Amino acid sequence: MTPDALAAAAVREVVELHEFFGDWLRPDGKPAFGLDRLVQVLADGFRLITPDGRILERNAVIGWIDTARGSRAEDFRIEVSDMRPVWQSSEAVLLDYVETQYGLGKTTRRQSSALMAAALTSGAPAAPLGVAWVHLQETWLQSAD
Questions:
Q1: Out of 1, 14, 54, 122, which could bridge 117 as a Cys pair, Cβ 3.0 to 4.6 Å?
Q2: CB under 8 Å to 49, separation ≥6 — which residues?
């Protein structure tokens, strides 16, 4: 995959997965796909560093999302914006974006940096868009409220 094609696939992956999270977490949400999609796109060694500084390994993230189904308010939604590749090659891309969550009259924002790799090099060959999440770092941003 060319660096530009990989970056475009990574952007699309971020958008699709966050749409899934929004639908999955709302009590009345109707996700376009199931939890297996998340399992397919997280590389074997995936790690998430939360805005609070906790480190979650792949299985912990999958387990949390699984048990959190329908746990947010009915007005819950997630938007991603300001996506830009910071670094890219034909095998991986480092993508920055802002994630904004809305619910119960509150807004939270986080700056995210995601390292994503071509699926065949990441150990996630079934990734639907050909790109897998390897590492994600999230940092709180000042509330928009």
A1: 122
A2: 55, 56, 136, 137, 138
CA separation, residue 40 to residues 3, 13, 86, 91, 122 (Å): 21, 12, 24, 18, 11
Q: Is residue 124 within 8 Å of residue 41, measured between CB atoms? A: yes
For residue 64, give both structure tokens: 């949390």
- Helix (H) / strand (E) element for 33: namely none
Instruction: Please give the structure tokens belonging to residue 113.
Output: 């940096």
Domains identified in the chain and CATH numbers: 3-141 (3.10.450.50)
pLDDT band of residue 79 (cuts 50, 70, 90) is very high
β-pairing verdict for 92-103 and 131-141? unpaired
**Residue 36: how many CB atoms within 10 A of its CB?**
9
Burial class (CB in 10 A: 0-12, 13-18, 19+), 100: middle
